[in-house]
Amino acid sequence: MTNLILDKAVAALLVVDPYNDFISEGGKLWGRIKAVAEANNCVPHMLQVLNAARKAKLRVFYALHRRYRPGDYETWKYIAPIQKAAWSHKAFEYGTWGSAIRPEFEPKPDEIVATEHWCSSGFANTDLDLQLKKHGIHQLIVIGLIAHTCIEATVRFAAELGYNVTMVKDATADYSNEEMHAALDINIPNYASAIVTTNEVIESISSLKP
Amino acid sequence: MTNLILDKAVAALLVVDPYNDFISEGGKLWGRIKAVAEANNCVPHMLQVLNAARKAKLRVFYALHRRYRPGDYETWKYIAPIQKAAWSHKAFEYGTWGSAIRPEFEPKPDEIVATEHWCSSGFANTDLDLQLKKHGIHQLIVIGLIAHTCIEATVRFAAELGYNVTMVKDATADYSNEEMHAALDINIPNYASAIVTTNEVIESISSLKP
Amino acid sequence: MTNLILDKAVAALLVVDPYNDFISEGGKLWGRIKAVAEANNCVPHMLQVLNAARKAKLRVFYALHRRYRPGDYETWKYIAPIQKAAWSHKAFEYGTWGSAIRPEFEPKPDEIVATEHWCSSGFANTDLDLQLKKHGIHQLIVIGLIAHTCIEATVRFAAELGYNVTMVKDATADYSNEEMHAALDINIPNYASAIVTTNEVIESISSLKP
Amino acid sequence: MTNLILDKAVAALLVVDPYNDFISEGGKLWGRIKAVAEANNCVPHMLQVLNAARKAKLRVFYALHRRYRPGDYETWKYIAPIQKAAWSHKAFEYGTWGSAIRPEFEPKPDEIVATEHWCSSGFANTDLDLQLKKHGIHQLIVIGLIAHTCIEATVRFAAELGYNVTMVKDATADYSNEEMHAALDINIPNYASAIVTTNEVIESISSLKP
What we know:
The structure is a homotetramer. Chain A is α/β, with parallel strands linked by helices. In chain A, 38% of the residues lie in helices and 15% in strands. In chain A, helix 6 (147-161) packs parallel to helix 7. The two termini of chain A are 21 Å apart.
């Protein structure tokens, strides 16, 4: 954590895909991430970071995956494998419990929910970059799911677009330890300026003047 | 129309902001555009172009302005004058009749509605470019409102991003003839490869093999 | 100028296309803008604003049009009218005097030159947004050429992307008064938060603590 | 290769960073990738794919990393770790042999070189997306360096932006087998519709009508 220095005027928390389908018992994909998520206390950690940010009055943003609606992909000429999978699983199906945000993570009225993303990056084809600019944000603390897809993609795009990124390594999860390792140890260190634990980031956030 | 050559494999119709607030009797902004819109038969022309496109099985896309929701702007540090005006007028207020699409222009199930735009361009901070790519589109026929704001912005962005644009000059309207002239005669000719009448574009569309 | 409040921590000057071909005697396009440019003292004003910014240690960025190189357009399937014109005129031809920056406007070593733009907006398909983010900039003072093409496009994109824009109305020029009027009086007021004179902006800049 | 179907009208080859510093004996980074690159014949394979594409008259594009120039990073407030490394190594230093393209890969006059990228993705803050659109391209065959940084980033961005991607798995290399595995086996399969060998892609390319 030696290199984690938060500047409250320009820092924000970014919560990625806290859907029931991912992180609630009974969610369509929970069974696939449960082992990794429980081993590192992912969901409680996510909540601790969110609560610390709210308490310190850090601004909070949400990046949410496209909720599946019939007709989304039928007419596409080109579709990536990960989108084919989303189409087939109907994960985050619009109007269902699975595509609702897990209740403890429900956005507050003054928190910003970006438009839904179609692939993995919270930035691609959404208003996330605009919303961050409109609030003067340059530094992002990132938590959420899945480490090697949406999280890594969002961290990569954030860095490519010019943001300073802090990754909270025990507030994310993945289908396997190998995928988690690829994201956290191989790729994200190139793009995130700090990779920290929940305890470390909470300590930093809590030291900010509210 | 000498330079209008449609290639059905890559052409689409783009309908911009056909909201009741703009183009229906009783809409919040209809009073301000009525004189120009009735002088050139804007709404009937928009409908004729849409129907011709549907009949020829041209793909149809919609670019829609952000429907106003309380909280949209309160936290922004930076806001453009046109966004301040939108905030003040509450045009296209979410959940109201004014922000519904005028019934004849209601998207069909296989037509694509891009995510809402926050300023004037249908491309900025939305998935419109993605959706066009996913359908292999390179050529856009543009109709809708308002000529010197959303229409001009969308045409400018389309050209900047690499699309070929056809503007239908009597299927748009504006608050005044001067603003209409600035859009159609001064600026759009730099970015749209063809500027045509409704009759001309319908003739071209109708000649396409369905 | 009532609404011009510069925040030095996030403000910068953006100079658009100060090429010899535009603003030097003998430039390919100087003849076409000379009447308007001399009537409002465009070039001396641009220089005064630049010098004031440098003196106040405001950060300075340059947005430059693609310098024409043979082969630029020959293979394109789609080309906008303004690009066809650029191809035909060979304005800003690479390696020639015309595509050199007029000497008084030559960037200093710590000033940032964005990659060249292909159409009108200094933001489209360039690294300008990245460079502004990397320097923490949110507020842009815009000067340069041509009012209704590159300047208006750059102002529109800046606003769409979330920047606060100040337009200096007598540090730009155009081919005609009508085009100048369309840019400065009809369109840019929707996107620029302040439209000021050179004297007004210099007064604001000079009041910043260096 | 079962899923590799090239459509010549919309397909192109994308060559990423064929700099001497990466792939020539004596290059600054060659020593670090040599073991992996020689094990899979990366450089000869890259050349075979390029030559097959040229012979079949597939369009060829180049995505090149920013060539280091003094002053590039000194003024940045925010810098990603991979950019700090680039700054420190001065890889691809402007004007040196290391930042020249290895001679066999030198672009031909009708091949398109995108503007240089500042981080890892060939798309971010460049004109690559524009150039692909201007040529009607939707399908990309990707070769070059380094697998888990620029290649993976470019493939991810291509998919996010709507392109169909084919990755040639033995025409890339990396610093270690583990990083190569993370890119080729863990991440890229989510975004590339086909992952093929050089032999497989050459067979497909060669079957296209020139």
